[in-house]
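Co-fold these.
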Amino acid sequence: EPEVTQTPSHQVTQMGQEVILRCVPISNHLYFYWYRQILGQKVEFLVSFYNNEISEKSEIFDDQFSVERPDGSNFTLKIRSTKLEDSAMYFCASSSLTGSYEQYFGPGTRLTVT
Amino acid sequence: GENVEQHPSTLSVQEGDSAVIKCTYSDSASNYFPWYKQELGKRPQLIIDIRSNVGEKKDQRIAVTLNKTAKHFSLHITETQPEDSAVYFCAASNDYKLSFGAGTTVTVRA
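Predicted complex below.
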């Protein structure tokens, strides 16, 4: 069964550094999402992406964040200047149709900002 | 925006008993309500979902009910087993994003 994959599984970075988190969505999916989960808390929506543009973003997704689909398979989340509070698990998800249909989550990237 | 409340935050049940988790949502435009199971350190896994034109859906030992008028939906797990122990999240969707509840930690006692 196809799955969403993410790399790396764990990323440690220093405050102020840029990080890029990578995702490979399920191949025939058209909608892509990033969520984050701070340890012990609920999953929070960051951004949705369709047809090479952002469909919706949350208040968390400020100017420090950007997303890109650089080729036909990868979907990336970039954090330009990381802060301590960016430490969280970041999940990529994809769905074949608009969000009324199933979103499948990747295994996550644990980002630790020191 | 959408606000999803989930109760209880923790639930301990004896193996074989039923578990019920309840969620309410605020946005009447929400039309899709999935439930995810998350084991420690792993990805959320979709276990069942319901759309706004359906009142109830069942899949083996799990069932979900939706009351659109009251804006609440519930997850029912019957004949619980130790492998049902996990964190369960409800969510509501308005087409582009999932708004999650805070999660319920379910512990099934052998």
